[in-house]
Amino acid sequence: MMLKGNEEGTELKRERWRGGEVGPNGKVVGIEHIPQLVEMGRRNIEKSHGNLLRSGRIELVEGDGRVGWPIEGGYNAIHVGAAASTLPMELVRQLADGGRMVIPVGTAHQFQEFIQIDREGDKFKQKTLHGVIYVPLTSKDEQLKKW
User: Tens digits of per-residue pLDDT, 61-82?
Assistant: First the structure.
C-alpha cells in the first residue's frame, strides 16, 4: 500500500481493504503482481468502498511491489505487507519529505524485524519497532509457482 495526500490509518493487503479513512484529498495505491489478485482486490473493495475506487482515490495496479510505484511517487506513507530480505531502497526513495514507511525485513519464514523509516529532507531515520514473521516479498514468477 502507498498513500499520497491527506490520509489516515489505512491498509491494503491483497484481497481485502481494511482501515479507516483515506482522507478528503488522500489516495491509496495498492500493488499486486498477479492480475487475478488485482481484480479480486477491486471486487472486494467495491463492496464497501466502491466510491473511492471509482473516484480514483484507491487505485489497484499490477506491478512489482518490491520496486513500488514511482509514477505517483512522493508518498506520505508506504506499508509493505510482506517481508523483504533487505531494505528495498527503491521504496525508501519514494517517500515524500516527512513520509514514513513500515516494512518487515529479514529471512523468509523466520524472525524478522518490523522497521520504520522516516524521511526528513534528504535524511532517513530507521528504527526497529518489534519482531514479526511475514510471508516473503517475492517476484511474480516465484509467487506463481505456488498457484
Answer: 999 888 888 888 888 989 998 9
First to last CA, the chain: 23
DSSP secondary structure letter of residue 110: S
- Give the pairing of strands 2-4 and 75-79: antiparallel
- Among 143, 136, 138, 12, smallest CA distance to 75 is for 12
Q: Above pLDDT 90, what percent of the chain?
A: 40
CA–CA gap between residue 113 and residue 118 (Å, rounded)? 16
For residues 94 and 73, the answer to whether their CB atoms sit within 8 Å is yes
Q: CB–CB of 91/79 below 8 Å?
A: no
Q: How far apart are CA 52 and CA 106, in angstroms?
A: 34
d(CA 69, CA 66): 9
Q: Are strands 2-4 and 123-132 parallel, antiparallel or unpaired?
A: unpaired
